[in-house]
Amino acid sequence: MTRPARLLLTVLLICLLGSAGAATASAHAALISTDPVENAALATGPGRVSATFNEQMQPEFAAMTVVGPDGNIWSVGNPEVHGAVVSTAVRPLGPAGTYTVNYRATSADGHVVSGAWSFRLTESGGGAPGPAAAAPPPADGLPIWPFLAGAAVLIALGAWWAVRRRT
Prior knowledge:
Elements: H1 3-20, H2 22-25, E1 31-35, E2 41-42, E3 48-53, E4 57-67, E5 75-82, E6 85-90, E7 97-107, E8 112-121, H3 145-166
Parallel strand pairs: 2-8
Antiparallel strand pairs: 1-3, 3-6, 4-7, 5-6, 7-8
Helix pairs in contact: 1-3
């Protein structure tokens, strides 16, 4: 086998082995329960909402908001993290309708988990809303394919340079 062919085979083998562990590295914390439960119909608003995950969560960078049918924020204060539970206080709710709980938290291994669930208030309350909500963040951060494509281009250029240098 020629030297360039061996180099190309080595590069391909390294790429294959490097991507073999990618499936296990992409695992992150999963939401296992919510309070109130998703799509619950409530006559009165909860004083607190919470999300429970299948592993411990980091208290840094946790975010949780409750957005009402009027587009305003009904959660108050900073979210709290206790082990695998992320929660936030909720002011007395106002208009009847669907309230959406948006969350973003970091698991113990550093993976960011974000998502949302909703519940419905069946009877209007007398609460005053907070400020208007901003657009929600992207669901799961940046896609990985641009980084993989960039790595493949760099490897191909390195292999081409090595072959050209030897001749």
